[in-house]
Amino acid sequence: MRIYQGIRSLILTLFRKILFLWVRTDVSGNSLESLGLDPNKPVCYVLQYQSLSTRLVLEQEVIRAGLPGATEALPVKNAPSHSFFFLYQRLGGLFQRRQTPVPTKEFRALVRYGLENPEEDVQIVPVSLFWGRSPDKEKSLVKLLLSDTWSVAGRLQKLLIIMVHGRNTYVQFNQALSLTQVVEEYRNSEERAQRKLARILRTHFRRVRQAVLGPDLSHRRTLVGGLVRTQAVKEAIRETAAKDDIPPEKVRAKAWKYADEIAASMSIVTIRFLEVVLGWLWNKIYNGIAINNIREVKEVAQDNAVVYVPCHRSHIDYLLLSYVLYKNGLMPPHIAAGINLNMPIVGPILRRGGAFFMRRSFKDNPLYATVFNEYMHVMFSRGYSVEYFVEGGRSRTGRMLQPRPGMLAMTVRSFLRDHRKPIVFVPVYIGYEKVMEGRSYLGELRGKKKQKESVFGLAKTVRKLSNSFGRVAVNFGDAIPLSEVLDEVHESWRKEAYDAEYRPAWLNRAVDELALRVASNINASVAVNPIGITATVLLGTDRLAMDEGQLIRLMDQFAGLLKAYPYAETVTLPEGNGRDWVAYCENMGLVARQPQKLGDIIALEGSNAILMTYYRNNIQHLFALPSLVASLFENKDSLRRDKVVFLAGVAYPYLQSELFLKYEPEEAERVINQWIDVLIERGLLKALPDDRIGRPEEGTEAMLRLRVLSRFIIQTLERYHIALGILRKYGSGKLSAAELEEQSTLLAERMSILFGLNAPEFFDKSLFRNFIANLQKNGVITTDENGLICYGEGLDEVAEDARLVLSVEKRQAIQQVTMLGA
Q1: At what angle do helices 624-631 and 641-659 cross, to 10 degrees?
Q2: Fold adopted by 530-651+663-671
Q3: Whole-model pTM above 0.85?
Q4: Backbone phi, then psi, for 821, in 5-degree steps?
Q5: 509 in helix, strand or coil?
Q6: Domain 267-523 -> CATH class
Q7: What is the pLDDT of residues 258-269, one digit of tens each?
């Protein structure tokens, strides 16, 4: 028997080595940590369908990873140190019709072993293997024959698949199951125990396949034709034909043209091509890609239609997220891209990579809006993963922009029409240490006209590939099930009937709540990097320069604040310390060193001083509350603790809305108190008798730390004070919201020039607009029948409280410009 086993093992080893002369694999989850294995318990690896080739690949990857094996006692000991078994075996010969797969004898023997030996637990590790990862094209015989799809391949088909796709094989190990826990309740029924374990494994394999391959895809031409035949589009065609007096056939042709313009044409060949090209590109321009919290995404993708909602910092975002998902075993999403990217050469490649194109505005074209809505409904109802940017466009300041409701509203309305397939939003933070478009953003912020995308513009970008842009972080935030949001906004939403045109009265509230959660969860998964923390500290100094030793200490201490009271579990912090970060920024060419005998000076010079505000703004929200507390001591030696909490609480709703802070207003008091305790513990504040809080002595390093910390948020508070000052200058019932916004923007721009404020967002009109809207939302101001702003004593109280956080110099400057008395 041993001779037979030895010969068999030798033959299988030979086959494995021959197979891997051709096969190349991409593997995920093959580590003790990710599998959650107990090294003291035996392990069995299970594949879904019986196949010699998949078993050889599995054995090779287990050996490569050095994963633990089994004991001699197990009934499925089929290798010198490891155990493998298949869940199902096929019945039928090479030329016989295949029958329904049945459980293998090894599977049945393992269940029997678990029932007979309850004290001997076995860890069962499900392993999924894919020969290529092509979507299933319903109309493509070639893809059906030569791609690993939802169907079970025969021997001849498997041979062809290995020949065509063997060099693009994906293997995914998944967390282990406990055999004892699975069969525990069926000790007296081996058959029921087998059914339970088979059901668990079958469900697991189906979910993984759904996440990796995605749902079945229709042929694009069939999809486009189907859109035009939907009831909603037919009705839109009739209405457009009647309104514009155009023959229905011409309108129908226009609808078909719209659908063809919009629809993606995802191609596995293009995706693999882009994988190779992008892999080279990232290695060329970046020092690595850090990926965090991907496991949660893999879990939600198995049972839900996933909507990826990343922040939008660069055109690279489109490509980077798809690349990261594909490399981690997830189907790349269909991506909503602006029609401006549908350029010659580039557009067709993006379309085959999963992009679908949308026009900037639908308002004056109801036919186009209907076709686009129906396309989105097809995506969601069929379970495709989709990606779109809720900000609409790229952020030029590094801040999260106010979400636009359009795509979110389409998603909600589609889900209301058909909610059989759950939809889950996955926020994604993409953080660059050096954004590729940084210099062009500077020009746009200075008033330069935004350049239109073109092939020539792309060629200019390619010239930058010799530059180093540091590392990139892709952090996945906490998932947001759409049904949970709807339950909170309108509990009885499932009981109502919806059609393509129905807009319930509560829809806007649901979309607003969803937008807020998405933006907050993106910010709650931010990646802090050396560039951001260096920028934050240097921009908080008077002259944008500091002694190197002092700068290093401050950065270490402020990083310590983030560790002392973590903002969220999904936030990631940089490795190393302040000294490493300064050296890194200097190497990236973002800070300048001025040698001095008493100690080198690190400074921001020229355009870098403005550029670094972009990277500071990436992480500003993390320091918003401690900075707000620190700013209250700008003009006061001490304050009662309840006064500190009250003042910070008054400002919190406006900061929350602008920076998308995750805490609800009712949580603010608790969080502010917690930050006061942390600042006292760290020596930035001190506890005094009579429940008062005091600042450190002037001239001490602790006072310097407090003052620098306060400046992280002070310009935001100054902007608020400008708007309040102008409103009080004109008086109640004298200005409209638009006039106040315009006056505030002009004054902020003037102050930026007069006082050398280097933050472009200081005079961002949209930020003033948001602040004015929040004043109205909080009841501080109202509008009369003529649209003029009215206010009472409440606004004066808010303005007086705001004055407390400003330095004497800035307060006098604002008073002088607004011609207000002291």
Answers
A1: 140
A2: Arc Repressor Mutant, subunit A (1.10.10)
A3: no
A4: -75, 165
A5: helix
A6: alpha beta
A7: 999 999 988 777
